């Protein structure tokens, strides 16, 4: 029987998805074409606006926004290729007098897109750990390094949230350096951070310890992205959801085995063995578990925060995000 052709679009993660991209792992009965993206924002815009790819990596917050507004073009699979602590990615103008998270009250904070999942998690820890509610901040969106901005999908936010576009000719990084905004939430470090006497600094200079403490206290390693199937593809062959889940698990298994072969370091980290030992201590050996059961706490937190912040129009149950064929994972 001929294999089913299927295109998947996503970022390339060397220890989690490389085996799918190279063909070392093939989903059962599927001829998979892996389309690599380096810019997740471009991928998410194309999926949100055009549902371009039959299977794809997707922003978790945008997907929750869709589901909560009865946009059911996609069906989720509990594979989470991207997770990230985000305390390291809040930057401040050094002249702004911001010495801790509480000092962000009443300030202007730049953000590439209000709905992006990284910003959701930043707003969550600011609110729940430091008492800084989203309404306490003036949020500004726009181009990060180029004066260009394309929102992936419109959202109607709570009326007490202040969100404005920056001037069309301006950039968020430039405004941060010039002091026109006080802080910036960005997955990309500002270029000015590399200057000999940088005008910007991280909000948390000891971010690794802050993030470690956050995980020990909450048990949450934030999910950023998940995998989705376009609904028409899923409905034509519902077994695909579990087939893809199993393939992603196999690809991650392959990558992790290579990563642990420390006689020949798989990545350019001289102390890789020590890092793997810490992952084993803190995360039980797997910082990137797939499936619903192993991620119940983080998914419940994600859906709760999305509703609190108006990203999701209603409260969502974790199971409704995923294909029923994957509920037992």
Structural shape: globular
CATH superfamily of the largest domain: Periplasmic binding protein-like II
Main beta-sheet strand count, sense and barrel state: 6 strands, mixed
What CATH calls the topology of the largest domain is D-Maltodextrin-Binding Protein, domain 2
From the alpha carbons, calculate the radius of gyration and give it in angstroms: 20 Å
Number of domains: 2
What is the number of strand segments?
A: 11
Q: Strand order across the biggest sheet?
A: 8-7-6-9-5-10
Strand content: 15-25%
Low-confidence stretches: none
The overall pLDDT average reads 95
Q: Tell me roughly what share of residues is in helical segments.
A: 25-40%
From the N-terminal CA to the C-terminal CA, the straight-line distance is 28 Å
Main structural class? alpha/beta
- What CATH architecture of the largest domain would you give? 3-Layer(aba) Sandwich
Q: Number of helix segments?
A: 10
Write the layout of secondary structure elements.
Elements: E1 4-10, H1 18-22, E2 30-36, H2 40-50, E3 55-59, H3 60-68, E4 74-77, E5 90-93, E6 108-111, H4 117-130, E7 138-141, E8 162-165, H5 172-178, E9 183-185, E10 200-202, H6 207-218, E11 225-230, H7 231-236, H8 240-259, H9 272-283, H10 296-308
Parallel strand pairs: 1-2, 1-3, 6-7, 6-9, 7-8
Antiparallel strand pairs: 3-11, 4-11, 5-9, 5-10
